Amino acid sequence: MSFSGVHIACGFTGQRGGCNGQVGLLGPSVWSQTMGAPGTTIRSSPYERFPDGPGEAVFSIFSSADIYFAIGTAPDAISGTRRFLPANTAVDIFGDRAGNEKVAWVLA
To answer: Could you tell me which residues come within 8 angstroms of residue 1 by beta carbon, excluding any fewer than 6 positions away?
Structure first.
């Protein structure tokens, strides 16, 4: 059976990832959610935990269809600031350092 829907994982960049002009590798995920219908994630991003924590929060998003998505504390993928993600493409996006952000999406 092929994947259908949008899969979102939220994790960290790894210790000291992204600081001092360096690009961090993605660390372990904190949570993930697979959504078969448009909507907003149930969970939100954790706050940044530098300098001794696991790093900056990152959303990894993969969709089997063309979608628009938005990230924020009250994301609006219909009429707010949004990004386009083509079908069968993955993207990793840093969250806000304060945390508490969700991902909303709609079909394009």
So the answer is: none
Please state whether the predicted TM-score (pTM) of the whole model is above 0.70: yes
**Residues present in the chain in total:** 108
| Angle at 58 (CA atoms; ends 106, 55), nearest 5 degrees | 165
**Mean pLDDT value across residues 76-101:** 92
- 76 token code pair: 């609006």
Q: Could you tell me if 103 and 40 are in contact, meaning their C-beta atoms sit under 8 angstroms apart?
A: yes
> For residue 66, what are its two tokens?
């063309």
11: nearest Cα among 55, 41, 50: 55
> For 66-75, how does the pLDDT look when each residue is reduced to its tens digit (9 = 90+)?
999 999 999 9
